[in-house]
Design a protein that fits this description.
The strands form three sheets. Strands 3, 4, 5, 6, 7, 14 and 15 form a seven-stranded mixed sheet that branches. Strands 10-9-8-11-12-13 form a six-stranded parallel sheet, sandwiched between helices. It is an alpha/beta fold.
Length: about 350
């Protein structure tokens, strides 16, 4: 596909609260690059935050970093991939040379954030018919026949969930509290269950998500709308202990950040996996007196292959995570606006082959 006159659809984040569906020229493919025909692109909470509040992702960006597709064209110097192969894209363009890459802590790469697919103008994301990958060797992974394309589209957020669990002090047969049963929280619950957690307590106000949490492996779900004091009492009662060794904050809201240390046992750990852009009033003395460790996690290092393996062998199942599949034409109305208003939505995928 080298004809520069060929056109494709592309959904542009023009400004806060506004998307524009446009026709643009299909990118030309360099000798070391790969052009992928997008099949599915998930709408991430980060995308919705940017759409609503202008955070992290600048205007005039084509969003979308949870991407599966089929290779359309491979540059002549590309040896690992060929036309027709099903692939998933890792949106992080890691340099491979900086201090963090040498430690294999790729999400902390000095240049990755500035070149991440779907986060900057010039590095267009997957809300388009085609996407150009400049560094295919580190950014593309083949999808085995055992993994459906729609399940593979969830590997990116599931890699974040797995990274959170791996960076925690969770131990087999241990108790954990998970705050929030959105995509990241449900992924954390699933991996905790797979890793033989003793008891998983979830804090989630939405009934739909509460049910999904139970299906994913939670032993109990507590509704925080009962009140802060009552929620804490109910969580502790379910644990039958003075607190959990590990608490995963996956909701990304100020109240969850504030309350998370209260669910932890003395000397326990709080993992910050939710994306919270709000200022939160806390009293550090409350953490100090109980020696609570608070650890933030950013994305993933190299968990894509692990998640792919777990999807392939059936240890992690994704059917309950996909709320809806919509067309690119309906992505703004039935995707971004809908997610912003409806807290019961876990994941919406945009299918480029659907037409409306």
């Amino acid at each position: 596909m080298s004809d520069n006159n060929l056109k494709m659809r592309s959904l542009l984040f023009r400004k806060t609260g506004e998307m524009v569906l446009r026709k643009i020229t299909v990118p030309s493919v360099g000798v070391n690059e790969v052009l992928i025909r997008v099949k599915y692109c998930g709408i991430c909470g980060t995308d919705v935050h940017a759409f609503r509040n202008g955070l992290l992702i600048p205007e005039n960006t084509v969003m979308g970093h949870e991407i599966t597709g089929v290779i359309e064209t491979a540059g002549r110097n590309v040896r690992k991939y060929k036309k027709g192969e099903r692939v998933i894209i890792n949106p992080l363009a890691r340099c491979g040379e900086c201090y963090w890459c040498r430690r294999k802590e790729y999400s902390l790469c000095e240049t990755a954030a500035s070149q991440e697919i779907g986060f900057h103008p010039g590095y267009d994301g997957g809300l388009a018919d085609f996407i150009l990958v400049r560094h295919p060797d580190s950014m593309i992974m083949k999808i085995p026949d055992s993994v459906p394309m729609e399940a593979a589209a969830l590997i990116e957020p599931l890699a974040t969930s797995l990274h959170a669990v791996k960076k925690s002090r969770f131990k087999k047969n241990g108790t954990a509290v998970v705050i929030g049963a959105g995509m990241i929280g449900l992924g954390v619950i699933s991996f905790l269950k797979m890793m033989k957690a003793g008891r998983i307590i979830t804090v989630e106000p939405c009934r739909v998500k509460a049910e999904l949490a139970l299906r994913s492996g939670a032993d109990a779900v507590i509704d925080p709308s009962l009140g802060r004091k009552e929620t804490l009492e109910d969580v502790l009662k379910e644990m039958e202990s003075p607190g959990a060794p590990v608490v995963f904050e996956c909701a990304g809201v100020a109240s969850a950040f504030r309350d998370a240390p209260e669910y932890a046992v003395k000397g326990g750990q709080v993992i910050l996996a939710g994306f919270c852009e709000q200022e939160v009033g806390v009293r550090p003395i409350d953490w100090i007196l109980r020696e609570i460790e608070v650890k933030a996690i950013l994305g993933y290092y190299d968990e894509f292959s692990e998640v792919m393996k777990y999807l392939g062998n059936g240890k992690i199942r994704t059917e309950n995570f996909i709320t809806d599949i919509i067309s690119l034409e309906m992505a703004e109305k039935n995707g971004f606006h809908r997610i912003a208003k409806d807290n019961s939505i876990v994941k919406i995928l945009v299918d480029m082959e659907l037409q409306d």
